[in-house]
Design goal:
- Among the domains are: 113 residues, Sandwich (Immunoglobulin-like), CATH 2.60.40.10; 107 residues, Sandwich (Immunoglobulin-like), CATH 2.60.40; 115 residues, Immunoglobulin-like (Sandwich); 92 residues, Immunoglobulin-like (Sandwich), CATH 2.60.40.10; 113 residues, Immunoglobulins (Immunoglobulin-like, Sandwich), CATH 2.60.40.10.
- Strands 8-9-16-15-11-13 form a 6-stranded mixed beta sheet, with no helix packed on it. Strands 1, 7, 10, 12 and 14 form a 5-stranded antiparallel beta sheet that branches.
- The N terminus is likely disordered.
- Helix content is 1%, strand content 44%.
- A hairpin with a 6-residue loop joins strand 15 and strand 16.
- The longest helix has 5 residues.
- The chain has 1 helix and 70 strands.
Length: 929
């Protein structure tokens, strides 16, 4: 492409001009030469012809005789090196500042250097007026033979002449546009009014240097796979990668096979075609395969590259068609457990080279145990696929289907996957699908949570977990493990396989090493497909109780009188973490002068540090001397499970038969008494223990063995006795004995075992053991037990009542009645539908020549008997018309026979046997006339 740039001429001090006007004598007024027509100049404000009357008019030097040059439109004589004979008046003097003189002989050379084809470049010629008069540049012209690729801006040429005042300068811009890769030269003549140098020639030059070098990319054109019937397109670039500004000339670019339907160059340019260094030509090559096959050709590039004037670029491509592949094929989902599902991902792939249209996908010949699904993002939109809406697989593209099998029973099942496409044969493609349902093993675990409660640290407890196979196949265990805290373990380390119905007991042990709540999970993994892992929650609390006895050991009774006794209360505390179990309390050796009193029921639990249990130790030495025993306490404190406390005392004595009962050592043994009953107080009106009190340990107001007086024992048959204010009374009855008669004197005389939760039922049994049987039920009036237990009144279509032990009708349901007056069969009559009792008992429906119907309690005739009709639309008289004989309604209501005709068997006949007269004929005898 050729680009044209603006040519500019700049003047240092351009002159002012104005529009020219006409003087009174007809001459043109002016201020400068540019105001005057060609061939005239401005002289004292008037345009005058150049050269006056004696000079020869001219346009160029060739118009002047030898020895003359054309100056300001007239030929001037050149003397002494180009001087023009003139007067000594002021004159201009042209001076070329740039380019400078060069060479021998010296010339002005405007060198454009190395340029690119199609690229506009410019150079300036700088001119100064060294004279003392205006310098007029009258003409700028190229000598013959100068290349047209050098040019000036037309605007500059149109502005001539140019005026350069004395001492000022201007510049002339020269343009060069290379059209090819050859060097160009020429001469530009500058014609002015300088009397000494009216014409100044300037040499013009542009050269091309370097070497063109062709480059083609890519070096091979391979279209790959292109569907038959479609086209492929690839671009190839040809560039000049030479040196300098050398131009590459392309003579031709064409296919080696000049006649081919498979490859073509799209819109090739005209040749020759020029490329500057770095320029690129892009060509498009098309591939049109007509069949599924491989094709090849060559692209030939001819240029002036001296090293590669002919290049051959291989061109190849392959016409392709689609190919459907389904994997896996056949599709075997395998065995699937009942109650679960299994899926197989099916790949539908186009292994061909062309797009493949899929118009239908379905499962055929199978049960609803198979289901076909697909994600529209990665597979197919099964809901919308069809011949009018095909889904296309590009070459090499694969999409996914999912076939899910959910067996409903045991055994093998099959189906067929059908994929339809107009691009394959045969269509649809059929792929077999098969699967088998089976009863899997089922793991049952009992319990699903174990709570070990509280366990002393460093101790252990064990609980069982039952594993059972409730399924149909062998149950196999893949792993057992405890996740969470390591205080729990199990044994054995593995569980054997279990056949159907078989069970196994696993032992789980809790052995805490720290206090606090311990939580973990026993994870049981098996081949149960529905529950491959069953978790059993494990919980336990680690405790560390510490036993503490008060008063602190040893327990010292000090000195007491022989024959007397002293008692100390002992408390046991738990000062650790968690409850303390006390299992036993004893004195060793036994018997001794020490004894335990008020020992609580053991084992006993001390829940926390604010609780305790207590008991008494009695020291009753019979003789003087020091005594000691060991108090032994067994508890759940594993650190001190058997605590032994020393108990000691010393007896000092009174003489035999004397006692210090007031505890005052000043008066000694002041009480005379001899112990009896081994020193234990008895209810016998004697001071047995010599403490100065008689029978002080017995309350005759409340003791049933000494009620009101010593040894007066309260006894009742099959019951406990109580003593209230010294009077015997009946307490609680023994199990299964009752005071049914309310008389305390014979105790609980009635033997009876309660049943039905102690609530009386109508079953002939005394359920509440009150001495009466079925007392809460009215067999005369209870419709649930009418005349006997369990005899329930349920009469047909009626509300039942019980009267004197017999079931009776209370009321009939709406629309029913007891028309036979027999309560046994209830309200047997349907008044809405019974024609013998329609709406009420005894209302019998009857209609002439029609069956009687009862419709919702109203009598209505049914369909008329053969030959009869209801012509008056009155249901009360039934089907009153005999359409076989009625001449006014013969055969149908409103059909009247003509005069002379009679109705015979539902048809009008002339004379009873003739025809029915038509078309205006009348009956005459048996004929129509």
């Amino acid at each position: 492409m050729r680009l044209l740039l603006t040519v500019a001429v700049t003047t240092a001090c351009p002159g002012c001009s104005s529009k020219n006007t006409t003087t009174p004598d007809g001459s043109l007024a002016c201020t400068e030469d540019s105001d005057c027509p060609n061939g005239q100049f401005c002289d004292q404000g008037i345009c005058r012809p150049a050269g006056g009357d004696s000079d020869t008019a001219c346009v160029d030097d060739i118009d002047c005789p030898d020895g003359m040059v054309c100056v300001e439109g007239s030929c001037k004589q050149v003397q002494d090196g180009g001087s023009v004979e003139e007067s000594a008046a002021p004159e201009p003097d042209i001076e070329i500042i740039d380019p400078p003189l060069t060479g021998d002989p010296p010339v002005y050379l405007l060198d454009f250097g190395s340029v690119m084809v199609g690229q506009v470049v410019s150079r300036n010629i700088s001119i100064r007026n060294a004279g003392d008069s205006d310098l007029r540049i009258i003409e700028l012209s190229k000598e013959m033979g100068t290349s047209d690729e050098f040019y000036l801006d037309q605007a500059l040429l149109d502005s001539l002449p140019l005026v350069v005042p004395p001492g000022q300068q201007t510049s002339i811009e020269v343009f060069y546009l290379a059209a090819d890769g050859f060097s160009d030269t020429g001469v530009l003549n500058i014609i002015s009014n300088d009397p000494d140098e009216a014409r100044v020639p300037v040499q013009l030059s542009s050269t091309f240097k370097g070497t063109a070098k062709i480059a083609v990319d890519p070096a091979r054109i391979d279209f790959g796979d292109v569907p038959v019937g479609l086209s492929g397109k690839m671009d190839i670039t040809i560039s000049n990668q030479g040196s300098g500004n050398a131009v590459l000339t392309l003579q031709a670019v064409q296919l080696a096979s000049l006649v081919t339907d498979n490859f073509e160059i799209e819109n090739p340019p005209s040749f020759p075609y020029y490329l500057n260094r770095g320029d690129v030509l892009v060509l498009s090559v098309m591939f049109h395969p007509g069949q599924a096959a491989s094709f090849s050709d060559k692209l030939v590039v001819l240029s002036d590259d001296p090293a590669s004037d002919r290049l051959e670029i291989p061109v190849s491509g392959r016409g392709v068609e689609p190919s459907l592949v389904v994997e896996p094929s056949p599709i075997d989902i395998g065995e699937v457990a009942l109650g679960s599902s299994a899926s197989v991902e099916v790949t539908v792939r186009n292994d061909g080279g062309a797009p493949l249209s899929i118009t239908g996908i379905e499962l055929a010949n199978g049960t609803n145990e198979f289901q076909l699904t697909s994600d529209p993002q990665t597979g197919f939109d099964l809901a919308n696929i069809g011949p009018a809406n095909p889904q296309v697989l590009d070459a090499g593209e694969a999409r996914k289907l999912t076939i899910t099998y959910t067996p409903s029973d045991e055994g093998a099942d099959s189906a067929t996957l059908e994929i339809g496409s107009p691009d394959i044969e045969p269509s649809p493609r059929q792929v077999a699908v098969q699967a088998t349902g089976f009863m899997p093993p089922v793991l049952s675990v009992q319990p699903l949570a174990l709570d070990f409660g509280q366990q002393h640290v460093r101790g252990m407890s064990t609980l069982p977990v039952e594993l059972r196979n409730d399924g149909g196949r062998i149950l196999q265990f893949s792993s057992l493990q405890v996740s969470g805290i390591d205080s729990f373990s199990y044994s054995p380390a593995s569980v054997p396989s279990l056949a159907a119905g078989q069970r196994f007991e696993l032992q789980v042990t809790f052995a805490p090493l720290t206090t606090g709540t311990h939580l973990a999970t026993l994870q049981i993994s098996s081949n149960d497909p529905a529950n491959p892992q069953v978790d059993v929650g494990l919980r336990g609390e680690g405790i560390d109780p510490n036993i503490f006895v008060w008063p602190p050991p040893p327990i010292d009774f000090g000195q007491i009188y022989r024959g007397t006794s002293s008692t100390q209360t002992i408390r046991i505390y738990s000062v650790g973490i968690g409850p303390l179990e006390v299992y036993s309390i004893e004195l060793l050796p036994s018997p001794s002068d020490f004894s335990l009193l008020n020992v609580p029921a053991l084992p006993a639990t001390i829940s926390n540090s604010s609780e305790w249990i207590e008991f008494d130790i009695k020291y009753a030495p019979p003789s003087v001397g020091a005594d000691s025993v060991a108090l032994r306490i067994e508890s759940s404190d594993l650190d001190n499970s058997t605590l032994v406390v020393n108990v000691q005392g010393e007896a000092i004595g009174c003489p035999d038969g004397w006692w210090d009962i007031d505890g005052d050592p000043q008066n000694g043994c002041e009480y005379r008494c001899y112990q009896s009953n081994n020193g234990d107080e008895a209810c016998d009106y004697i001071d047995n223990d010599c403490d100065g009190l008689t029978d002080e340990d017995f309350d005759v107001t409340s003791d049933p063995q000494n009620c009101g007086a010593c040894n007066q024992d309260c006894v009742y048959n099959h019951a406990t006795a109580v003593c209230n204010n010294g009077v015997c009374g009946l307490g609680a009855c023994d199990p299964n004995f009752w005071n049914a008669n309310g008389d305390d004197s014979d105790g609980c005389e009635y033997a009876c075992v309660q049943s039905n939760g102690g609530i009386e039922a109508c079953d002939g049994i005394d359920n509440d053991c009150d001495g009466a049987t079925d007392e809460d039920f009215d067999l005369q009036n209870d419709p649930m037990n009418c005349g006997g237990c369990g005899n329930q009144c349920l009469l047909y279509n009626a509300t039942s009542v019980c009267i004197q032990g017999t079931c009776r009708i209370g009321s009939c349901q709406v629309g029913y009645d007891n028309c036979d007056l027999n309560d046994v069969n209830g309200c047997e009559t349907d008044l809405k539908a019974d024609p013998d009792n329609c709406g009420t008992c005894g209302n019998v429906c009857s209609f002439p020549n029609a069956p009687a119907l009862c419709n919702n309690g109203t009598c209505q005739p049914g369909d008329c008997s053969s030959g009869f009709l209801d012509c008056n639309n009155d249901p009360t008289d039934g089907c009153e018309t005999n359409a076989q004989t009625d001449a006014q309604n013969c055969g149908s209501c409103g059909t009247a026979c003509d005069p002379g005709e009679s109705c015979e068997s539902g048809q009008c006949r002339c004379g009873a046997v003739g025809p029915d007269c038509q078309n205006g004929l009348s009956c005459c005898g048996i004929d129509c006339v």
